[in-house]
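User: My collaborator sent over this chain with a note saying "see what the structure looks like." That's all I know about it. Can you take a look?
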Amino acid sequence: MQVKPLELGAKELLDVYYLMRLGRAIEDRLNLLYKGGRLPGAIYLGTGQEAIEIGASYALEPGDVLAPTHRDMMAQLPRGITPREVFLQHYARANSLTHGKGEDNYQGDLKRGTFATVSMLPDFYPVAAGAALAFKLRKEKRVAMAYCGEGATSVGDWHEAINVASVMNLPVVFVVINNGYAYSTPVYKEMKVANVADRACAYAIPGVVVDGNDVVECYQETKKAVERAREGGGPTLIEAKTMRMRGHAGHDPATYVAKEIIDLWTKRDPIVRFENYLVSRNLLNDQQKQEIINRVNEAVEDAVSFAESSPYPEGKEAIEDVYAA
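Assistant: Without extra context I'll predict from the sequence alone. Here is the result:
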């Protein structure tokens, strides 16, 4: 299998830039629709986390699997989820990935190697470890990647999954998006360790801290971990330090976050930083930037229009594709 290189070329870097802008534009529109009362459910946005959301999952290859959370819509963009599918899901339409069963960000697609998201965290850490165990037993060179926030690292499932993955040397990469707040609880009130990645030493696996607003660093460090896992090196814990620039959910104004903190992280905007990186290397000019913005805007407009004109499911469909245990 041909894998992406550690040093991405111009085409791939511009692809990443497009995905980051697309993710931001989708979330901005979702926020407007939610505030306008046009969405039936909740929204959980990852605005400000574009670098790690997209940089990490971009390091996966076809055949690998991703286990994201309900905040990680953007991580699914490199896996092939489309803007139409995102908005169809939020509008709960019959042609959404869940066929209208749900109206939040709880979509996934196993054909594209993405588990449907959950909001109970870190419930997908054990699932990712299980997928990695299957790959190992079948002698497949595939990798599982799981996401969660720093708040989930204080839950027992998190430690059990990492312990099992370490003991069994499983091909899995654990990504912790340390976005500063577990709902409204700041990190310093939640744990005494300086870095979540420090917890890796308790399980004898590598723990890596990355600048969560630097997409190149996020991609490269995650890529190293992915290929290390693929070659039998076992799991890695990646901690991305970033900031959740909106509240826990659409209804949360995040008044518990000081303005000074928001101002500080606004200056570190991952999209602006990546733009400057591309411009400094003559990989992006004003015309290219505008063309990408136009493509993004067209994709979002098309997706919203398509979703709003799509039908709701019939009532009888409520009991299809479901099971009881």
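A starting point for your reply to your collaborator: The mean pLDDT is 96.
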